[in-house]
């Protein structure tokens, strides 16, 4: 583009990671038994620690249901120490797949079955080959700030974070690093969480959900013929109209319609502390409750969460290519004189106050001592991400039309905190679920049989298993029963580690004995076998939508994973009488 594209380009001083915990974030994993990801370029560029992520496990959700998206991010959000944006998106397509090998999908069709990488089921794929083809052959946005980085070539694979054009799956690096992206994208926006709510109107109006995109369209056969010869397709209307191939003008500046979806939700980012992949305020995971839209049912969908973090060393929103390094100055031309109290730019630069890799600054000029700063201009403008495995979105059955359905899932994987970090140990999601008596709950979880075999846990080594049983009645009845929950009857308490005797609990919950047995023993999909620690059960369990029709507070646990020494897998459902209509 000839002018600066609208960007969300941020600045970071250190490694900052983001991990999805529900739905299960892959961090590029498939089903490896090791603690490290086998191939961190399998599907996309995460920039994350290779220890993160969960093995593949697929779920489905009904349209219009509430899904709790949970994550951890390493550095702060909603805090004075840094700027932060969190961007949630999804994409559905028939070609999306998890694959069966950890090898990165080739970018040459002669290396794929039937000479078509888009349909070779062996390889995991999210964005497809044609999307990457357009990225690789499209001119990069030269209006962007790249500081002192040498991008070598001028296609959209080259960014300040990816100056060598490294390929990860079929992702487009320029689209990954900047939001909202100015060219066509298959990603649909869910939400933007930001430190600066004044930006929300901008995010809403510029989203590809509501605003069309433009691109220079060249016949595919020309792109394929010249694909490996570094053809560069213009990224603006004027040059597109003049683009020639073998003496003929072949460019067509084309509008791609908006996704025709509501503008993304935009809100203040939830607070998290610095340098800590952990909980937010109140000791709970940071969560966004996504109401899955109606009318988007598809069997192959994925979720993406991007994390943009910046310090205040310069203004990333108002810094463009005019501040890049040039032949006349060393490093970026950003002027630090006013910010740090120097008489002029020359004085600042003479003391080493230059935006470049590892500058040496002279803080005390009379002492003649220089101090080196650990600065990497490729990391000042860092975007991190995690993506889910494939999941399905399905239409509701007729009998569930018009009712509220909540999803109740399990997060985490086998092992103690040291072994699984930056993934997490087992727990229910949401940990506390508040519903009305006429609401439904869709209980569903999945796991893996290929966790590291020496990770701590009960039952068969390397396996994830879960169940759900009601906890016993509270031990300490003194005081007003249920005072903390508006006077509701409380069944069980989180301090207990023994389940309730099931012959007594159905009258208290409104659930049938068959349902309680199913949740505890994973029937009817599981019948017989060695079940004391659920070893013979499968990794996947699904109740379908169901009701707990009696008002009250139900505390429950997993008998296998509620190991009180270092893990506590307990949850709570608070059911209130439905409001009168």
Q: Could you provide a short overview of the structure?
A:
This is Protein DD3-3-like. The protein has 581 residues and is an alpha+beta fold. The chain contains 9 helices and 25 strands.
- Which stretches are poorly predicted, pLDDT < 50 over at least 5 residues? 1-15
| Tally of separate helices | 9
Overall shape = globular
The helix content is: 10-25%
Range of strand content: 15-25%
Q: What is the count of β-strands?
A: 25
Q: Ends: how far apart?
A: 55 Å
Structural class: alpha+beta
Mean pLDDT: 89
- Roughly how many Å is the radius of gyration? 27 Å
Largest sheet: 7 strands, mixed
Q: Provide the number of structural domains.
A: 3
Supply database-style keywords:
alpha+beta; 581 residues; Protein DD3-3-like; Immunoglobulin-like; five-stranded mixed β-sheet; signal; disordered N terminus; 25 strands; 3 domains; 23% strand; 9 helices
Folded structure, characterized:
The protein has 581 residues and is of the alpha+beta class. The chain folds into 3 domains: 18-212 and 257-312 and 382-387, no CATH class; 337-376, no CATH class; 403-576, Immunoglobulin-like, CATH 2.60.40. The chain is 10% helix and 23% strand. The protein is built from 9 helices and 25 strands. It has helices spanning 129-137, 173-177, 200-206, 220-226, 237-242, 345-350, 417-420, 502-509, 513-521; strands at 18-22, 60-62, 66-73, 83-92, 188-194, 213-217, 244-245, 248-249, 252-256, 265-268, 286-291, 298-310, 360-364, 369-372, 382-387, 391-394, 405-411, 427-429, 432-436, 440-445, 469-470, 490-491, 541-546, 552-557, 570-576. The strands form 7 sheets. Strands 2, 4, 5, 10, 12, 15 and 16 form a 7-stranded mixed β-sheet that branches. Strands 19, 21, 22, 24 and 25 form a 5-stranded mixed β-sheet that branches. Mean pLDDT is 89; it is low at 1-15.
